[in-house]
Amino acid sequence: MKLLSVLVFLSLSLTNVSGQADTTKQKVYRVSLPYEGGGSLVFIGVSALGFKQLDRVASFDQADVVHLDPNSVNAFDRSVIFNNPANYDRAQKRSDLFLNVSILSPLLLMADKRIRKDWLDLLTLYVATHAVDNAIYFASAYSVRRARPFTYNPDVPLETKVGVAKSNSFYSGHVSFSSTATFFLAKVFTDYHHIKGWKRVAIFSLVSVPPALVAYNRMEAGKHFKTDVMLGFAVGAASGILIPELHKRIKQSKSVALEPFFSATGQKGLTLNYHF
């Protein structure tokens, strides 16, 4: 789903570019198109396999479920356990909708002539930003097993609690991917227009709404605890802000690039490389 949205962003960006590029203005970000563009697309594509493997790693059987005790969950998170299961499906659909809206939201940047001239750099930077966010998510989700809230809920049938993708509550990928996209939108817009102070705060507050809606509905769907969505929001927001900021700071250095790597043993990630 995430890969599909990124590809849609690519195709729509191509059709929305018009006019002669303005080469008189210095670019805001320095981006390595062949390394970061191609490499990050491959990384996100490979991530589809990573999600499937994560679901298998996070499986539960009946013996796992019977040992779950709601009282073992911290008081701050515990209330999510008892959300009404009748609302799960509707909340799941709403969270997917708000996620897709968030991921496509950077298309709004193409309406701005000042920004549109750098569309290829920004597309590359957007994909690289999601690649970094994916890498952080996988590092966490594969390392930590946390049962999803609905597996504790006494009103949920046992057969629903067993199977794949039951112990990957930590942390919310949906929320992280959503905030990555919307905060990237705000970061790029405010950088290009040199917006500071309270106007900048207002813009970042506005783009917080879609990931907040994703977070609320992920909890309503019984998929994540409060701390899961809070951390997902923070990680995504940090990715959406810091990756463009890194490229902004190193734009004068042609020897620096953010590059994905793949090992012979199947490990994958991203590196910040310096080329002599």
Q: Please, could you describe this protein's structure?
A:
- The chain is mostly helical and about 280 residues long.
- It has one domain: Vanadium-containing Chloroperoxidase, domain 1.
- The protein contains twelve helices and two strands.
- The radius of gyration is 20 Å and the shape is elongated.
- The two termini are about 40 Å apart.
- About 35% of the residues are buried.
- The N terminus is likely disordered.
How far apart, in Å, are the first and last alpha carbons? 38 Å
Q: Note the main sheet.
A: 2 strands, antiparallel
Task: Look up the CATH topology.
Answer: Vanadium-containing Chloroperoxidase, domain 1
Which term fits the overall shape?
A: elongated
Low-pLDDT sequence parts: 1-24
CATH class: Mainly Alpha
Number of domains: 1
Strand content: 5-15%
- Number of DSSP E strands: 2
Name of the CATH architecture: Up-down Bundle
Query: Using only CA atoms, what is the Rg?
Result: 20 Å
Keywords: Signal
Pfam families: PAP2
Protein name: Phosphoesterase PA-phosphatase related protein
Question: What attributes does this structure have?
Answer:
276 residues; Vanadium-containing Chloroperoxidase, domain 1; 12 helices; disordered N terminus; PAP2/HPO; PAP2/HPO_sf
Write the SSE topology.
Elements: H1 2-16, H2 33-57, H3 62-66, H4 75-78, H5 88-104, H6 113-116, H7 119-141, H8 158-161, H9 173-192, H10 197-206, H11 209-220, H12 226-249, E1 256-262, E2 268-274
Antiparallel strand pairs: 1-2
Helix pairs in contact: 2-7, 5-9, 5-11, 7-9, 7-12, 9-11, 9-12, 11-12
